[in-house]
Every structure is written in C-alpha cells, then in structure tokens.
C-alpha cells in the first residue's frame, strides 16, 4: 500500500525569493540540528534539499547538497520546484471555497456538473476529494494481488522509456478522464479508499464548469492572489519552470547503457491536477499556514477537510485533499507530500497551524523508483526532527 501511495505521488513572497538568497539570520545558524538533518538526507542519495520551518523559535530556512549534477552551488532556498501531489491540497481548497460561495455542494453527484462523462451517479464531489470514488487511476493501478494495470505512460515501471520519449506531449484533462473511465473501477463508490489522480482531474473540470473560468484563473482569484503567492504557478501544459530552481534528472537504460538526462523541463499535463503545480518552500508555508489557520475556509468546511477517513495505511488517514497523520511521538500533523519525476515536495502543519515544515528535494529518478524508500525515510527524518524533537528516534526505518 505504501508503494502504491508513493507511485501515486508520481508521480517567496519576500524580496529575497527572486535571488534564492536568504538573510544570514534566516539561514538558521542557531538551528544546527535542522541543517544536519537535511545534510543527512543528501547523504542518503538525494542531490539537494531546501527546508523551511516555522515554529515557536521563529523561522528557519536552509539548503544542502547541489542544485545540479556536476555543480557546487546549493539549491536555492526559495527556489521553484514541481510540487507533485501537493497540487491536490490547493485543488481541494478551491473546491471547498466554491462550496462556501454556494457554487457547488459536497454531497451532490459529480455527474450533475459533468454529465458528458456518464459518471456513476453515486460518485459525489466529496468522494472525488476524499479518494473514495473507486475510479481507476489514469497513471496506472497496482492491485493487492500484485497485478499492474497500466494507464498512460509514466516515468515508473515498464513505461519509463516511453515517458522519456514523449515527455513534451500535451494531454488534455478530458482525455485522461476518458482513459480512466474505460477501465474497471476498483470498487463501488463510497465502499473503499484508493488514491487516484483521476479524482482530482475531475475536480479541476468541475471547478472550470461551475465557474466558467480556467483552473488557473480561479486559483489566482481565491488562493494565489489573496495570499500573495507570487512563486506559485498553475502550468497546465507548459514545460517551463521559473528561475531560480534546482535541476532534476531521470536515469534509464537504452541499448544496454545507462543514460541520465535533465528533465527539469517537461510537459506536466500527463498528471494534470493530480500533481502539476510549481511552488516554493516559502509559498507552501504561507499556503498551509493560512489554510490550517482558517484564513481560506469557513470553520465548518475546514473541519470537513481535516476529518480523517480510513485509508488502510498505518497512522495515516485522508480528509479532503490532506492526509491526517500520526507522528512517531504520538502527535498529529496535517500534510500532503508530492513527487514529480526527480523532485519531491513536503508540506506539514500542526492542526492549529502554529508549526509548519515545507521542503523540496531534487534527485536522480528512475523507472525502478530506487529512491522511494529514501524519500519515505527523508519525510520521517524531518518530521521527527521538527515535530518530535528528542521524543522519537529519527533513524528508525519507515513502515
């Protein structure tokens, strides 16, 4: 199950953001334990890590490793990165804001808004955000018996080389949904939980249908503009990523030889709203802090968002666009993480929004997901350091 979640992940507002520099005070010379934590993550196999922590001791930001292969410069602390499935939290927040505006409802059939797809009328808007629709994941499914059913070519498994060759291909969201609907559902609507990017592409289409505007326009109106998230981008099918940024890579075999290529630029429409957005550690902090702090949603809807639904993953349940996770020291964090071909993004907050951790990692990815375990350990290492301190052993292996 953990592997399935990892596979599903698929894959600064401040003036210093543009340069990637941070003032010496913010660089956290008084927080050596945080610098050590990210240096140890780099030593585990990642190219680079940028971390930002806000807690009772104030703000700390720093980076370790390198921004690109063969280079010596560290990753920019406020650099841009593809944030993968953190996109889902932004998208769920947007849907809930439309609920607050009376434009949609959580427990109404999604088919009422998107009749063109012939969706099962038992699938509600809530089920899309909660991953309880049962819809096939267009990036592929791994079933409990080990059976793999492919969807579109993705950078993992046997389709890695095909993804490389077509990494600038543009998919439309409707195309991804129709592919998913051509496959059998995993279960009857509302009877199980399974992480599916299809749910969030449908959420995007629902947003666009009820507002008459693009997802990017609505994101700007309700989230990016009000919070001043100038480093956050809804790219749609654009392969570009703003400067500054670290570079990300993909390793694969061709004609019996290993090749490593720079995939910093690629068309993210293959995952669409399942994980296509670009942001910074600063913007991710501002977003999760505002969200959990009640600045984006009315209290009842925020409570709905953070109400956990069982996933079958130990100590990790799912609300509406967020995981509700138990830490090793017995606390609770609201989180979503994401992986996007050579990059990963972490976003955590205490339930009251008083402490946050945001991070981006750049790495050499491959079809075998050889860094998946290291990614899980990196998450655990940082969460334990920030949210548990000395109360948990950060060296213990991931479940």
Automatic annotation (TrEMBL):
Signal peptide (residue range):
none
Domain Beta-lactamase-related, chain residue ranges per copy: 35-366
Name the SUPFAM superfamilies on file. Answer: beta-lactamase/transpeptidase-like (SSF56601)
Q: Where are the transmembrane segments?
A: none
Gene Ontology molecular-function annotations = hydrolase activity
Asked whether the UniProt record includes Repressor among its keywords, one would answer: no
Which keywords appear in this protein's UniProt record, sorted alphabetically?
Answer: Hydrolase
Which InterPro entries does its entry note?
AmpC-like (IPR050491), Beta-lactam-related (IPR001466), Beta-lactam/transpept-like (IPR012338)
Alphabetized Pfam families for the sequence: Beta-lactamase
What the entry lists under Gene3D superfamilies is as follows: DD-peptidase/beta-lactamase superfamily
The name this protein goes by in its record: Class A beta-lactamase-related serine hydrolase
Q: Which organism is it from?
A: Nonomuraea deserti
């Amino acid at each position: 199950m953990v592997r399935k979640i990892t596979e599903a992940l698929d894959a600064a507002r401040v003036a210093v953001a543009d340069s990637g520099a941070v003032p010496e005070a913010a660089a956290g010379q008084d927080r050596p334990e945080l610098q050590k934590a990210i240096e140890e993550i780099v030593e585990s196999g990642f190219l680079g890590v940028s971390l930002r922590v806000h807690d009772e001791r104030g703000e700390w930001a720093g980076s370790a490793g390198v921004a690109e292969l063969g280079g010596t410069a560290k990753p920019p602390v406020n650099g841009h990165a593809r944030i993968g499935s953190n996109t889902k939290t932004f998208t769920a927040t947007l849907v809930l804001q439309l609920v607050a505006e009376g434009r949609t409802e959580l427990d109404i059939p999604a088919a009422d808004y998107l009749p063109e797809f012939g969706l099962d009328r038992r699938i509600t808007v809530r089920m899309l955000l909660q991953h309880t629709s049962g819809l096939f994941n267009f990036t592929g499914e791994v079933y409990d018996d080990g059976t793999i059913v492919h969807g579109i070519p993705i950078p993992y498994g046997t389709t890695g080389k095909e993804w490389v060759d077509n990494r600038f291909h543009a998919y439309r969201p409707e195309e991804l949904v129709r592919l998913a609907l051509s496959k059998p559902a995993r279960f009857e609507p509302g009877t199980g939980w399974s992480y599916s990017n299809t749910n969030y592409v449908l959420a995007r289409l629902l947003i666009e249908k009820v507002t008459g505007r693009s997802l990017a326009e609505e994101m700007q109106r309700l989230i990016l503009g009000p919070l001043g998230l100038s480093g956050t981008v809804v790219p749609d099918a654009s392969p570009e990523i703003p400067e500054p940024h670290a570079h990300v890579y993909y390793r694969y075999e061709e004609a019996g030889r290993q090749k490593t290529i720079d995939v910093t630029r690629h068309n993210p429409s293959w995952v669409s709203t399942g994980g296509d957005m670009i942001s910074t550690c600063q913007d991710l902090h501002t977003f999760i802090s505002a969200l959990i702090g009640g600045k984006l949603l009315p209290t009842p809807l925020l409570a709905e968002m953070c109400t956990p639904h069982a996933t079958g993953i130990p100590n990790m349940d799912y609300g509406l666009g967020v995981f509700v996770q138990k830490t090793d020291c017995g606390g609770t964090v609201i989180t979503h993480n994401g992986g996007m071909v050579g990059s990963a993004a972490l976003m955590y907050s205490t339930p009251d929004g008083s402490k946050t951790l945001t991070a981006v990692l750049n790495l050499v990815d491959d079809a075998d997901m050889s860094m998946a375990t290291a990614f899980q350990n990196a998450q655990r290492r940082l969460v334990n350091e920030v949210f548990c301190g000395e109360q948990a052993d950060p060296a213990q292996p991931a479940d």
